[in-house]
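Hi P.,

Sorry for the delay on this. The queue was packed all week, but I finally got your sequence through. Input first:
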Amino acid sequence: MENQFEMSYFAAPITNKVPLRTVTLLEVARAIKTPWLALQTAELRKITDEAEARRFKGSHFPYITPAGVFSYCNDQSLIRHSGVLCMDLDHIEDVNGVKQRLIADELFTTLMAFRSPSGDGLKWFLKIDLTRCNHRQWFDAVRSYLMSMYGLTEKQADPSVRNESRACFLCYDPEVYVNPCMTVDK
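Then the structure:
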């Protein structure tokens, strides 16, 4: 795949709105696979109170903007779109099973998929063609598809990640899936 799928990287906490640097999707996958966020991830998954977990995640985890490169983390500051849509699937009973089904789904090109910081969800990165429709139209269509074909509820196919500047927290997942077309040698 010739596209490097560039996006902005932000250091924790979530209140940091100016990106630290631009990264490629492959660099993100490498970061997720290495254990530099293992302690924070394990600690977060022990927290049972949702509000406390949200605060912990927001203060301890770096994040990216999968939809593209931004000068500041808001929709008006998009410099260029990455051609990536990140779907956030929450409260999934069989995370690995859903992950394998999405990877095998012939309708979409899965670029990357990893277990979410909470441990009971999935971050699914897919390639989108912006000449066919815009980011939010892609989001709405993919979300509807997930609800009808995968039986996900409206809450499981998180509607809050529709906008381009939506943050995606990084965490530790040694089993992150990376599309074989995105090799380390690129």
